[in-house]
């Protein structure tokens, strides 16, 4: 249930011409042909399917005792470090689908390359003066005389929850824009060390650091109002639902005017949610896996509320229902993902 992203599909609201294969065009019109391919796109659910899914979730919705929930929450860092210690860089594949779904990450697709220098400069100047009073690991690094990693870049991307770099390295390989700088962070220090030890890690174009998204008081190594793009790929779902709004609101402050936040995550009634057994539920639609890591399953409305409460404007909010097929075992697996783009209002 953790790796829900292989072969993702959608092709909507492209903002520039990216010469890559377009996905999301294989539709199942004859149910008898279901095992002819490994996957089918934009599959409509019947009322019966949805009712069955709701019933399944309800059956396994009794939450664990509060003390057990607290244990999983307090040991989250330990569980994620354990995950990356075991799997290292073998679990996920590089997300080359990113440039189809999120052309903002591809070369010459800059949203803000020529954006409001006066406005963003004012924001940076204000932030530099404010941050003189701050302390922490990144304070001296980020705000000494206005200097911070990537301060001379013209297009800045931050991936939150970078894991071992399956988004970061495809971006660095594909986007040869000399003005690009990519920041990436993860809750797991083990994951960040794996990123830094990768031969493709280039400190001149990338800066990896450990960060807890849910700790809204912790400093980022980037001033507010300086990022063009923030990427959240299957990461917000790992937070406790009560911590999500503050985390998104904090991230939104990092965006330039016109900057965009990109999200791909688990949708309600995804196969992974329906597979959870009794004794795995922490709260409504929030579960703990066997390895101790946690996961939430969203609706479009929930995500819209999170982003708009952070004063971001909707660009895209789509649900992707995909039918994956195991032809050898004659099994069908229904995946549900949600893809969002929300932006900071332009000046």
List the helices and strands and how they pair.
Elements: E1 39-40, H1 47-59, H2 66-74, H3 76-87, H4 98-101, H5 117-130, H6 139-143, E2 155-160, H7 168-174, E3 180-186, H8 189-197, E4 206-210, E5 227-233, H9 241-252, E6 255-266, H10 271-274, E7 281-283, E8 286-288, E9 294-296, H11 300-309, E10 312-326, E11 331-344
Q: Kindly state the mean pLDDT as a whole number?
A: 77
Q: Give the number of DSSP strands.
A: 11
Summing up helix and strand content along with how strands pair, one would put the structural category as: alpha/beta
Main sheet strand line-up: 1-10-11-6-5-2-3-4
Q: Determine the oligomeric state from the structure.
A: single chain
Strand content: 15-25%
Shape: globular
H/E series: EHHHHHHEHEHEEHEHEEEHEE
What's the helical proportion of residues? 25-40%
- Poorly predicted parts: 1-23, 110-146
Question: Could you characterize the architecture of this molecule?
Answer:
The protein is of the alpha/beta class and 347 residues long. Helices cover 29% and strands 22% of the residues. The chain has helices at residues 47-59, 66-74, 76-87, 98-101, 117-130, 139-143, 168-174, 189-197, 241-252, 271-274, 300-309; strands at residues 39-40, 155-160, 180-186, 206-210, 227-233, 255-266, 281-283, 286-288, 294-296, 312-326, 331-344. The termini are far apart. Keywords: Cytoplasm, Methyltransferase, S-adenosyl-L-methionine, Transferase, tRNA processing. It is found in: Cytoplasm. Belongs to the methyltransferase superfamily. METL family. Residues 110-147 are annotated as: Disordered.
């Amino acid at each position: 249930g953790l790796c829900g992203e292989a072969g993702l599909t959608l092709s909507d609201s492209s903002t520039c011409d990216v010469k890559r294969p377009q996905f999301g065009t294989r539709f199942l019109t004859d149910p008898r042909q279901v095992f002819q391919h490994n996957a089918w796109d934009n599959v409509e659910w019947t009322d019966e399917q949805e009712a069955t899914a709701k019933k399944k979730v309800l059956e396994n919705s009794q939450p664990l005792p509060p003390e057990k929930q607290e244990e999983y929450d307090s040991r989250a860092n330990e569980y994620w470090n354990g995950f990356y210690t075991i799997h290292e860089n073998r679990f996920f594949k590089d997300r080359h689908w990113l440039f189809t779904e999120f052309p903002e990450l591809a070369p010459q697709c800059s949203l803000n390359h020529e954006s409001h220098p006066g406005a963003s400069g004012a924001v940076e100047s204000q932030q530099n003066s404010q941050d003189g009073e701050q302390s922490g690991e990144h304070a001296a690094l980020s705000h000494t005389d206005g200097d911070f990693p990537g301060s001379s870049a013209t297009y800045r991307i931050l991936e939150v929850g970078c894991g071992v770099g399956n988004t970061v390295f495809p971006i660095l390989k594909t986007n040869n824009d000399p003005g690009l700088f990519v920041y990436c962070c993860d809750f797991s220090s083990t994951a960040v060390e794996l990123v830094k030890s990768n031969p493709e890690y280039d400190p001149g174009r990338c800066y990896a650091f450990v960060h807890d998204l849910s700790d809204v008081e912790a400093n980022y190594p980037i001033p507010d109002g300086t990022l063009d793009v923030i990427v959240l790929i299957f990461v917000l779902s790992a937070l406790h639902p009560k911590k999500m709004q503050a985390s998104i609101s904090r991230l939104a402050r990092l965006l330039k005017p016109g900057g965009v936040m990109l999200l791909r995550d688990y949708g309600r009634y995804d196969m992974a949610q329906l597979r959870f057994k009794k004794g795995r539920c922490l709260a409504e639609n929030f579960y703990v896996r066997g390895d101790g890591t946690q996961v939430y399953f969203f609706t479009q409305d929930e995500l819209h509320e999170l982003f708009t409460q952070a004063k971001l404007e909707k660009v895209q909010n789509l649900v992707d229902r995909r039918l994956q097929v195991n032809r050898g075992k004659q099994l069908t697996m229904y995946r549900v993902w949600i893809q969002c783009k929300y932006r900071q209002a332009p000046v």
